[in-house]
Structures are given as structure tokens and as C-alpha cells.
Structure prediction request, 209 residues.
Amino acid sequence: VLGLISRTEFERAVRHHRAEHAAKGFACWDQFVAMLFCQLAQAKSLREICGGLASCVGKLQHLGVGRAPKRSTLAYANEHRPWELYQTVFYQLLETCRVAAHGRRPFRFKHPLYSFDSTTIDLCLSLYDWAHYMRTKGAIKLHLLLDHEGYLPVFAHLTDGKAGDTDVARQLDLPADSMIVIDRGYLNYGQYARWTARGVWFVTRARRN
Prediction:
């Protein structure tokens, strides 16, 4: 997986965001490897992350990591380092995937085709007290735009669980002559008019009324 990430581009992003300002030996690459391990190993805590990495110290050197981090070091990095660094890394990886997908099996359709939808992710309200959704439930909502040319996400936005879908749809910047497929939750005639004026096609389902 790490082979997909250009180390040169990663370090350039680190310098651009000054992500290692006042860092003391724990590099952003080390943090990135640790959090990637967290996702792939489905670790539930910092103790699990650090313990898992410590159990395979010899292999860490092949990933460019000198030693497994301490819990306090990883926790401090996660809290204080700029999230914008990983946004930049995401777009770097997205561009790599786009280049790799280009020229492979073409998606045969007259217009560039996009699908847009949202999904609600439940959260424990006692742990995430900012994610109010219902009286006893917490949640956030992920809004995702999928490009069918290569089947890659081109827009992702996180909101609280109560955010309206149509509000996020206004942020989309779709190219002229493209087509977007949406559900009934995005019914907004003002938005449809704006898309039409820009030459954007849309497909949705009509409401019964």
C-alpha cells in the first residue's frame, strides 16, 4: 500500500504545511504509517497501534520507520499536526490512481457521469458530544461524489448528522456537459436551474406529490 505513495511528494507536502515544526524525532511519515496500520489492523486504541508496531520492529525499517512510537508521542502528533497535510496526500494519491486508470477499460457513455449521495455514520454520543443527531444518538454524515471514469471519489465532505443534502450539493463544481445521478433527497429546483444554466445534466427520481 505504501508503494502507492510517493515519498518525495509526501515530504514536499510536509514542508509546505510545516507539519514537522518543533517535531522531536517523530516524523510525519512515521505518524502516517502508524495510522495506516491502525486502519488495516482495525486497531481500537493507541495502545493497540503502538503495541502492534512494536511487535514487528524489524519489518518497520523496510517501511521507512525507525522504531514504534510511544502512545503519548502518537497522541500528541494526532492532536497538533495539521490535518491539511493528509488532505494533500489524499489528492496526490487520487491523481496517481487517475493516471493509472487512464487508458484502461473505457467507460462508454456520452457524458462524464457522476453519482452523488450521502450516508449517516453513527457515533457514540458520550465520546463525541459535538456530533448531536438525536436526543440519545450521535452521528456525522459523509457526502461523496463518485466519478464513473475510473470509479474514483472526486469530492468528499463530512458534516454533522443533521446537515441537509441540498446544502452540500451547492458546493459541487461539475464540468459542463457532465451528468449527475442523485436521489430524491436532493430535490431543489433552484439547484436544478443552476445546473441547467451551466450545461450540467441531472437524473433523479420524482417525488410522488
User: Anything to note?
Assistant: Residues 95 and 207 are 38 Å apart (CA to CA). Residues 84-101 form the longest helix (18 residues). The longest strand covers residues 113-123.
